[in-house]
Amino acid sequence: MTMLYIFDLGNVIVNIDFSRVLGVWSDLGRVPLALLQSRFQMGENFARHERGEISDEQFAANLCAELDIALSYEQFVAGWQAIFVGLRPEVIALMQKLRSNGERVVILSNTNRLHCDYWPSQYPEVQLAADKLYLSQDMGMRKPEARIYQRVLEEEGVSAEDAVFFDDNLENIEAARQLGITAVHVTDAQVVPDWFARHG
Q1: Residue whose C-alpha is closest to residue 166's, from 193, 132, 140
Q2: What is the arithmetic mean of pLDDT over 167-191?
């Protein structure tokens, strides 16, 4: 029986650090970092952007207004791309091994056009390690909405009990578990290699 392995992107395959984004914006906008950190929240603006309901430019304008910072769109993007710290090569290796064993490997990520224009060129290994990418803004839905998991299972032709899902967000994990998917909460870089070491 072929298994479906579903990997989140941020802090599962690629290390990300949002404080780096705010650091760049703080420098470019000449606003103290602590002030930006106190104002920053992943609210409705983020959710709508990740579902592809608003443009990158609208998202940037909304976020700059929330943070009360004056940045050009180019400056906004420069900060936004600073989120990527680097790959987790051990996870990429595991994904490649699963595929060579005939298993199905996909990525399911809440993402946005801005990042999709960027990370494939920076990290071509990510796309090469997956059979398919399921991205929230292409699908018009986002984790933890039940329908996004159901869509992936439908498109893959797999039942929930034959799927394993890795994500760093507990809310996303709990939503997957409610549908009967085996879900592994990735709290640090060792979780995924440890899980496969235990499950052979």
Answers
A1: 193
A2: 98
138 catalytic? Reply is: no
Q: Which domain range does residue 48 map to?
A: 16-83
Residue 128: C-alpha distances to residues 35, 46, 105, 149, 193 (Å): 40, 28, 11, 22, 19
Q: Up-side HSE of residue 133: CA atoms within 13 Å toward CB?
A: 19
**CA atoms 186, 190, 192, 198: torsion sign:** negative
The count of structural domains within the chain is 2
Chain segment 59-87, per-residue pLDDT in tens: 999 999 999 999 999 999 999 988 888 89
Q: Are residues 23 and 65 in the same domain?
A: yes
Return the CATH number at 38. Answer: 1.10.150.240
Q: Are residues 195 and 125 in the same domain?
A: yes
- Token pair listed for 6: 């579903």
Residue whose pair of structure tokens reads 């549908």 in the numeric block: 179
Q: Which of 8, 117, 131, 162 is catalytic?
A: 8
